[in-house]
């Protein structure tokens, strides 16, 4: 059996397990065991992956298995991974693991909560291992729809409004995507032969330029909505702010990466000529995303809104770097996806934990938290520093690579766009340091804070896992860039020819 | 008439016996009709199973009546849907005030079903018209079945008027057709082609006539009122079985008779599809009464079905049939839950469902899956039905139409989520209490549930439909 299927079977078994047990403690326990098993298996998969590579297997995709599903449409259950998807699977496993521990204290309908959360995670895993556009799309929608109940039922603030807005905007995005995918499908055999949804097969085909130009915007924007590209980002601040902790973590940490990954793997890789022709439009939009998101974060007073806008900015940077279409910049983009996924998950986890103690997320109502909850505060500072790109943490590696890569373009347009995007670093520093200053340092503003307790064991597991991952990428980025180098080189070659 | 004829027309014959049985059973003085209900359901279940036995492809009565595997399968879809409706109706029939209507209810339902069989098996437009009338007139009585309710009587009259008009329109189309082709026989007409304005008009009038039954916009005006006024099992029957028969008939005529000259009807379908989807959606957005809501939702779904007609190849017919199969089960699941609630509490507004999940988790989950299936969300069956339907349209290069359709699907997701929101998210001081459902109702819901969950994953079902259509 294909080992990749275990990535789907473990969540499925966990869901069944959660559905069967009765009381809250057992629900938590089963979810934690399931997602820990998933994390362990992800590590085993990395090992197997390297084993295959070292034994001389140089295929683009490893662990490929194909089963015909709908014969008349040539829809296959085709799974397989390369270095990029491997990295994404690791990210998803880590964030889901941390997310389960961060939501340990959910007490309203815990069973339903964990089931929806794991369906979401399962959808993401399925997306990253799919090599068939149909199943990819299926898993994509499966990952999005549980968000409605997760935000609507367990969220805070204007949760019903946010849940509806998020779901409809993302489903609207997937509506555009569907048109794009159908367009790709019906042009997948321009010289006659069988139409296919198979990603690796379509990549070998030259889709006519007219079709590419027509369908590229649909596909790119379709995924771009999920990647929070300006002007389709508006679901993100509301959605993230209203979502419960683990959902914000998974959503900003992983689900938004589906957007970036899809833009690259599907839109740009399969429609390369159109990507070149139309890149300028999307580079403009994404540089606006980067700067606009950063400015948006400055203006916000709610911790979650700050982080949500910062995600818009960082995810904009991912798309921006991908559109630069050279090896350095795209390496940076993948690194940024992983790095942002980890650190934004950490941020949201911490915000959830702080909110659980102070019952407010307004930064001007809080102060001096460093003195009462030092553990959480220190981790917050680490996350902040990673976010503004301090060397030694993951953010620096990613952003540095992106800007070096994008500056390799010598023409005026790319240079200007790069400089505009770079300016976001300064703005990021402003809002991160402002938050750290008012929130953590200074006098304690509320005597009630003196009674706060520092992190509990499950919160420590959640936080420490993410911090370790961030530090590992920051200190030894080469193992990650090794993992993604080969597939990237091959994809960039397709893109530039 | 010999034995082989009898085996070909076995469904019609058996159902006629059922009708006769109802007449006799109604003579009994007994107050309690439970025995009649049990017998009818068991016997109809047997008929449904008999429908799945193999049968030969042939024509009868000078090819007035056509039987082949595809038509048999379409009848089977209708049979299964009717069986589910009958199972759901037990709760309603067991109410004291409805006991006396049992015989008449079954009699009328089965009469319309026989009519629908003849519509599907028709080999001649006269036969088709005969079947259509038989399938329509008893329905008007059914719509007015809650005779003490003003709105039910109104529903009956409205349906009667609009079906009379639609029959007139249809007949006008048929008479023009006869004028152009000189025959009303399917097999003879399929060989002729004609591009005159008159034949275009004839076809459009024919589509309009059936469009009433399918509640396509702009022929939909009766739908919401009739759905709201009719008793719940009848509404359910309208939205699935009656609509299915009209859709199948339209599909068979267009693909089998006018298949060689698709230009007119694909264009008509293109525009009808857009208007139906958009108008159905716009009106569904603000509905508070769930029956009206489902009326507009089913109009929107009819718009999606028309999408398949822009593809005049086997792929189009195939995806239409497949979509209808999935739509039937999804819609019946929604109606099943709704009828359990209405029978026990008399409530049918969206607000009444607030907090439904806290008291009735299983019913809520089935409703959730069914609504997701209608909205086309994976992994439930509706996603596959809709995706393939859109594929059929896209294969003809109609990407703009597909774009309009997918955007409409997103809009429809909004109002389906409103129901989900009511059940799961909204708080309510006095939610609907935990409802007990009878064994029949549970069976009906389990059949729908199994279908909604499984059909998408079992590609063999799609391939089977494809093999029947002959693509």
What's this entry about, in short?
The complex is a heterodimer of chains A (497) and B (471). In chain A, a hairpin with a 4-residue loop joins β1 and β2.
Provide structural commentary.
The complex is a heterodimer of chains A (497) and B (471). Chain A is mainly α. Chain A contains 20 helices and two strands. Chain A has one domain. Chain A is 75% helix and 3% strand. A two-stranded antiparallel sheet of chain A has the order 1-2. The longest helix of chain A has 32 residues. Chain A is globular, with a radius of gyration of 22 Å. By secondary structure, chain B is mainly α. Chain B contains 20 helices and two strands. Chain B has a two-stranded antiparallel sheet with strand order 1-2. In chain B, strand 1 and strand 2 form a beta hairpin. In chain B, helix 16 runs parallel beside helix 19. Chain B is globular and about 65 Å long. The model of chain B has no long low-confidence stretch (mean pLDDT 90). At the A-B interface, helix 5, helix 6 and helix 7 of A face helix 17, helix 18 and helix 20 of B.
Report on the biggest sheet of chain A.
Answer: 2 strands, antiparallel
Radius of gyration of chain A: 22 Å
- Provide mean pLDDT of chain B, rounded: 90
Tell me the strand percentage band of chain B: under 5%
Q: Kindly state the number of beta strands of chain A.
A: 2
> What share of residues of chain B is helical?
over 70%
Q: Roughly how many Å is the radius of gyration of chain B?
A: 21 Å
Structural class of chain A: mainly alpha
| Ends distance of chain A | 37 Å
| Range of helix content of chain A | over 70%
Largest interface: A-B, 33 and 31 residues
Number of strands of chain B: 2
Sequence of strands across the biggest β-sheet of chain B: 1-2
Q: What's the shape of chain A?
A: globular
